[in-house]
Amino acid sequence: QVQLVESGGGSVQAGGSLRLSCAASTSLFSFKAMGWSRQAPGKQRELVARVTAGNSVNYADSVQGRFTISRDNAKKQVYLQMNSLKPEDTAVYYCHASLGSYEVWGQGTQVTVSS
User: Which of 40, 65, 90, 94 has the fewest beta carbons closer than 10 A?
Assistant: First the structure.
């Protein structure tokens, strides 16, 4: 079935930028929605960005204006451009896709922002 693989994580200084990529094994048109969530130590998993099949986008208040989700259907990839990074953005970031009846999640990629 569907597999998602994240890449692009790493360590950056506060104020820096990073772009995460999510490669899907199937056409992005298979998905009702795709998104990025994150989980920091001691915190609950948080949805940070989502794009629907109708191309509607939604961002968490904490990342609004700093993060941008986008897709490249030809490459079967979804991206999360992260700008003006803050230490509180440090987390494992997960790509996920909704197939309608269930969701598929990637293994995650670590993002560390130092002050």
Answer: 65
